[in-house]
Design brief:
heterodimer; A: 175 residues; 5-stranded antiparallel beta sheet; B: 214 residues; alpha+beta; 40% helix
């Protein structure tokens, strides 16, 4: 096999892996991430942006644990119309039903004035922590699911981010 | 084997000690559990409110928050990290309404009733007829130690409940302001209110005590 053929074979395997990962990220909408994404797509009549890129990022994170992040799924909806009060109430129900499957609510924030909904749910998995982040605004939305090693993330923040922003006030601030 | 009187006394002492050690952790856990308020009754206000902020920080997440705070060189961050170490939970519920009368007195009373339980003590109360605002700060004491704190702010168009569970150093408490959803400048805000005529005598006595200590 020539070098060119090897590169071609690698490219095919790599893109297939990205494609499979992109599609499997939905897991037939079986998990909470999938359910929420599905709800946003169906009820707000929007579609995901940067789907392949997110799948690629998820694949990279699976092998290369940057800053202690071991798993990553993301769905981004940009520049689309997501304003609907009735579906907003349904979104509340769907996200909050995640609590029945072991997710602990950390932050729930809702503004009827600006139409913004933000939810952060967490779940411990041995030493690791899983986070489900949902943010819906009138013209954009994002759903993220992360699996991270808190020790490694803290170390990463101390060493890499902390050095760059030396002397900054507390990094984790909810307002 | 016949037991001598000394042996019997030692046996009783050992049994009593074992019982005390067996029961003490339960008491400590109970004190923390008692300091946690049941705030579920406020969830129904979410549908009426224009703005809702709900923060639940306990267990592993509180530990995680402590890890993420970069204490290098910043005294406030170091103090914040220090406070978080002993805490069991931080719970914040804030509702902002478009108009008055969106929440009932019964909603607030359900919280206030829990704060009449043994151990809870009101340290600040501020009422303003003009602004129709009623602010209260409660602490749960176990001996000299403070094991819980509750802040209740009821305004015509806003309701805020902050509940902190775990050992708290009241002198370091101001460090938590503006973090984890706890409203900024709350303690200072209430201290200023204490000085107003509407403040209750218990506050003035406490302030005087603090001044003496300084």
């Amino acid at each position: 096999m020539t070098m060119k053929n090897r590169l071609n074979a690698f490219a095919v395997v790599f893109f297939t892996a990205c494609l499979v990962f992109t599609l499997s990220a939905d897991q037939a909408y079986a998990d909470d991430f999938g359910k929420i994404v599905r709800h946003i797509e169906v009820n707000y009549h929007v579609h995901r942006n940067h789907r392949f890129l997110m799948g690629f990022a998820g694949l990279m994170v699976k092998f290369w644990h940057v800053g202690g992040v071991k798993g990553f799924k993301a769905a981004i909806f940009e520049d689309q119309h997501l304003d609907a009060t009735e579906t907003d109430a349904r979104l509340d129900e769907i996200v909050q039903s995640a609590g029945e499957r072991g997710w602990q609510p950390l932050v729930k924030s809702y503004s009827r004035r600006s139409g913004e909904h933000s939810y952060i749910y967490v779940q411990t998995e041995g030493k690791d922590i899983r986070m489900l982040i949902v943010s819906v605004e009138p013209n954009e939305a994002a759903v993220l699911q992360l699996k991270l090693d808190p020790d490694k993330l803290a170390k990463f923040m101390d060493e890499d981010i902390g050095e760059r922003h030396h002397g900054d006030v507390a990094a984790m601030t909810f307002r | 084997m016949r037991l001598t009187t000394t042996n019997k006394v030692w046996r009783k002492f050992a049994l009593a000690t074992a019982l005390v050690f067996a029961v003490l952790p339960g008491f400590a856990q109970n004190a923390n559990a008692n300091a946690k308020l049941e705030l579920k009754n406020l969830d129904k206000l979410s549908s009426k409110a224009a703005e809702v902020n709900d923060v639940t920080l306990d267990g592993a997440m509180l530990e995680l928050a402590g890890k993420f705070i970069q204490a290098d060189g910043d005294p406030e961050s170091a103090q914040l990290k220090d406070i978080l170490k002993g805490l069991k939970g931080i719970y914040v519920k804030n509702f902002e309404f478009d108009g008055p009368n969106q929440y009932s007195q019964a909603d607030v009373e359900a919280i206030r009733a829990q704060l009449t339980a043994p151990g809870w003590q009101r340290i600040v109360e501020s009422r303003s007829q003009h602004a129709k605002e009623h602010d209260e700060i409660f602490i749960m004491k176990q001996g000299d130690a403070i094991t819980g704190l509750a802040i209740l702010v009821a305004e015509p168009t806003e309701l805020t409940v902050v509940n902190i569970v775990g050992p708290i150093d009241i002198n370091k408490l101001a460090t938590l302001e503006g973090h984890f959803g706890i409203p900024g400048a709350s303690v200072e805000h209430h201290s200023k209110k204490q000085k107003s005529d509407s403040a209750k005598p218990e506050l003035k006595k406490r302030e005087a005590d603090n001044d003496d200590e300084e």
